Amino acid sequence: EKGTYAHYMLKEMDEQPAVIRNIIQHYQNENGDIELTEGVRELVSEADRVYIVACGTSYHAGLVGKQLIERVAGVPTEVHVASEFGYNMPLLTEKPLFLFISQSGETADSRAVLVEVKKLGHKALTLTNVAGSTLSREANETMLLHAGPEIAVASTKAYTAQIAVLAILAYDIARANGKKLPFDLMQELALVATTMDSIMAQKEIFEELADKFLKESRNAFFLGRGLDSYVGLEGALKLKEISYIQAEGYPGGELKHGPIALIEDGTPVITLVSQPNTHLNIRGNIKEVVARGAVACTISMEGMEHENDAFVLPRVEPLLTPLVTVLPLQLISYYAALARDCDVDKPRNLAKSVTVE
Ligand code: M6R
């Protein structure tokens, strides 16, 4: 039930810090160490490459998951849109691990791939929010998101839950492979939850930003580099599905190879600046669009901020930034949809779960 909330989406965004705390509890043992089931551990320790298969927001979480698995565990990882994978299968390694990411566990495009993969005799792990869902039952193993029911069509808490669980999985693969772990994951996730609380306590700022930048706008750009560019894709998807504003997510450096032609006077460009290794590059990209008339709405992270930034996020571990950078984008999309009188929880043409191929 949505209780006093105007919309499920707002409630579900608000639940995100609690979901992260819930995930920490479910995946740690009494010593505070990550504990996965024997079955999951066995599956991941055998894999020479991970193939992530998903759709929509879950695909965007997969892009972040690839970075986590490669950088933490050192295992090559590919990310595929499910509807493409079945018909254009890449070359597979000898011991592939298939990782299906799906909030509902019922998405037909992903189910079709799982059927093919099983025919080939490969193993699969499903990350889902719904215990007993089809993708969970048909895979060898399941990791649950523990996010509670997600009702709004626009996925929010499932995305952050997926990333947190992917980080836990990456840590476990790293451990299975005898890798040195870069930081205390559970401690950093707890810090993420606190940071999420502080962002959610400042919603009115994002309402103002949505009014200022998006209320009257036909289109919008989301820029970033590295992890920020993946979160930008998610921001663009969120905005287009609930506010019907045409939105493009782009890696900052790619803009001048074409899309910059679309920038005109007043085009809103929402940029994330949270990656220490590229923050100067993305600042250059912001200058390029502003010189062509764009209005910049920049969301940065402490230590990389500039005085004209619209919002400065508290610092979190660079590999975990998507868990916090996505919140402003979710909130801005929500308030933009409200300002434009759109049906936030039930956008046109969309269903919560896409059960046809
Ligand atoms: O249930 P799933 O995670 O498999 O759903 C995948 C997509 O259909 C879903 O994420 C969709 O893109 C959302 N409406 C995005 O907000």
Give a verbal description of the structure.
The chain is built from 13 helices and 10 strands. It is α/β, with parallel strands linked by helices. The strands form 2 sheets. The chain has a 5-stranded parallel beta sheet, with helices on both faces. Strands 7-6-8-9-10 form a 5-stranded parallel beta sheet, with helices on both faces. It is globular, with a radius of gyration of 20 Å. The protein starts with 7 loop residues before the first helix and ends in an 18-residue tail after the last helix. Bound molecules: 5-amino-5-deoxy-1-O-phosphono-D-mannitol (M6R).
List the helices and strands and how they pair.
Blueprint: H1 8-14, H2 16-26, H3 38-46, E1 49-54, H4 56-73, E2 77-81, H5 82-85, E3 96-102, H6 108-119, E4 123-128, H7 134-138, E5 141-144, H8 157-176, H9 185-200, H10 203-214, E6 219-224, H11 227-243, E7 246-251, E8 268-273, H12 279-290, E9 295-301, E10 311-313, H13 322-339
Parallel strand pairs: 1-2, 1-3, 3-4, 4-5, 6-7, 6-8, 8-9, 9-10
The protein binds 5-amino-5-deoxy-1-O-phosphono-D-mannitol.
5-amino-5-deoxy-1-O-phosphono-D-mannitol (M6R) is lined by residues 55-58, 102-104, 107, 110, 153-155, 237, 241, 353-354.
